[in-house]
Design brief:
Blueprint lengths: L13 H7 L3 E3 L2 H17 L17 H13 L3 E5 L8 H15 L1 E2 L9 E4 L29 E8 L3 E2 L2 E5 H11 L1 H7 L3 E4 L11 E4 L2 E4 L2 E4 L3 H7 L10 H14 L6 E3 L6 E5 L3 E5 L2 E2 L9 E8 L11 H4 L18 H14 L7
Parallel strand pairs: 1-2
Antiparallel strand pairs: 2-13, 3-16, 4-16, 5-13, 5-16, 6-15, 7-12, 7-14, 8-9, 10-11
Helix pairs in contact: 2-4, 5-6, 5-8, 6-8
Amino acid sequence: MMHTAIESPAAWRAAEVSAEGRWLRHLTAPETDAVTAMLQAVRTTGKPMLQLTRNDVPLGAFAPVLAEVTDELERGIGFKTIRGLPADRFSADDNRLLFWAIGTHLGVARPQDKASQLMSDVQSAGGQYRGAGGRGYNTNAELDYHVDGTDVVGLYCLQTARSGGLSRVASSIAIHNEILRRDPALLDRLYRPLPHNRQNEEADDEPPFYMAPVYSRRDGNFAARYIRNHIRASQLRDDTPRLTEADHRALDIIQDLAETDAFRFDMVLERGDMQFVNNHVLVHSRTHFQDFDEPERKRHLLRLWLSIPDGRPLHQALRDAYKSVERNTVRGGFKGQNVGPELRAYQARSALALGMSDTPY
């Protein structure tokens, strides 16, 4: 099966996405007003974020927008950007609440690091990208193309950089098909389990690395898990399997193809833009950026990792990475070390509201 091309609306090339323009959804005035009303309604509940479910978030005229996002993520090109959210009208706390509220309709938020944070601040904070503990979200570095550790990643842009910080995506399916055309033997390597370092983010009951393939299929459903930085970092350990020269070539070709004009689609995320990307079908990246000197003007995005209802079933080889591989189950994220009763209660409550099965975490 791995030697057959995959047909999908998500098997696009950059020129097609650019010409169609379906990646971008401009809000109308009534839809923008509905967002403001939604935020006011959420505020009125008086509930903290972890107690909110989709039942507390009335969408009104904004509902068709999220329906478009949901459809595009799993059955379309794999990503969508909403433009026109009135971020300037809201305080920092209200923007955070707005992003969380919209997320309740799309999925269950998953922890993203050792601290088990459900919403991260993506900004340069002196972090290190390369190495055994490297993560990219707290640096200003140019990032390898990669996926995040859950079904969908969402970004909400609050401040743009002085220069750089371009958002980039490429179709994992189109790249897969091109590797098949060029060198099927390299494709074979990507369907085999490879070691992934947990980047010192593991919980006490997790090993520091796991095995997972880059490409997998189950019941006709394709999924990619390309996190080159984590695979590279695994080789700094003495207890992980060694990568072969062929493994390195296979991993290189994904990055090399994603960087070409044929596969790479670039976009500038503006203040108030909200972008959602399906990690199973796209890889994404970001260019190096330079910040403004003033702290309040530094590039700042909020990030959610979401486990979505009716997501595709995943291959059993991904169980160590996602904990659950079944459709309509809460899965993915980095468990971290602060999964307490409050987070577990949030997870169970949100899963119930979305019609999903909760899984122990």
